[in-house]
Design brief:
It is a single chain. The chain has about 230 residues and is of the alpha/beta class. Helices cover about 30% and strands about 20% of the residues. The protein is built from eight helices and nine strands. The strands form three sheets. It has a four-stranded antiparallel sheet. Helix 3 runs parallel beside helix 7 (about 150-155). The termini are far apart.
Length: about 230
């Protein structure tokens, strides 16, 4: 087992064993335990008491983080020609249809979000095998299949993210960068948790939110006291 360097041990010791931190404390501490030379991502992991194999316990939603993710989101808009200018004006990185569909069929997925419109979903649907496993398939529920292309692009660029529980019952999402003030990390995390709380399925029994953890790239996780997250 690799020994921790003095610096890393000092940082690891800042997280007390078996302690649950208030969300505001965790937001400050995650900055202190981040030692990467680059601007690390801040992530939240929320373990839910649901069975995601059952359709009536699937938790999926959209959240607009008040301070964005701090990450540049690359957006591809697949649309008909009359919508192209609207998409470009809103800040889309790539705009088109048939040529991009061919590129994706060839394995190109150098993007973070795809926005499209109902009339072309038949063409986009044929890309399911490539886009599905990468979480890139547009979906009306997440607002990425819409006639309001410009609005959808702006919202994604400003920090709107789509999330869903994985097969282990965990929601994992990026909620900022280490360069953010701790207040911004706290407010983004709180918005994420508030949204998840509102999505509790009626079929979910027992404890809904089992655990919450905040971490940064390559840092240890900081466990959050779910009961006190909104204090």
């Amino acid at each position: 087992m690799a020994r921790l360097t003095k610096n890393k041990k000092k940082v690891a010791d800042k997280i007390e064993a078996n302690k649950l931190y208030k969300l505001s404390e965790a937001a400050k501490l995650v900055k202190e335990v981040t030692t990467t030379k680059f601007d690390a991502s801040i992530d939240i992991d929320v373990r839910l008491g649901v069975d995601p194999r059952k359709a009536n316990q699937m938790v999926r939603g959209i959240v607009s983080l008040p301070h964005g993710t701090g990450k540049e989101t690359r957006v591809l808009v697949l649309c008909t020609p009359e919508k192209e200018e609207e998409a470009k004006a809103a800040g889309a990185d790539h705009v088109g249809l048939d040529s991009y569909i061919e590129k994706i069929k060839g394995g190109w997925t150098d993007i973070d979000v795809i926005i499209t419109m109902p009339p072309v979903m038949a063409k986009v649907g044929a890309l399911g095998r490539v886009l599905g496993p990468r979480g890139l398939m547009p979906n009306p529920k997440s607002g990425t299949v819409t006639m309001n292309i410009g609005t959808a692009v702006k919202e994604v660029k400003q920090g709107k993210i789509d999330f869903k529980v994985d097969k282990f019952g965990i929601i994992h999402a990026g909620i900022g960068k280490a360069s953010f003030d701790s207040d911004k990390i706290y407010e983004n995390a709180k918005e994420m948790l508030d949204t998840i709380m509102k999505l509790k399925p009626a079929a979910a029994k027992g404890t809904y939110v089992k655990s919450v953890c905040i971490s940064s790239t390559m840092s240890a996780g900081i466990p959050v006291d779910v009961k006190s997250y909104d204090e």
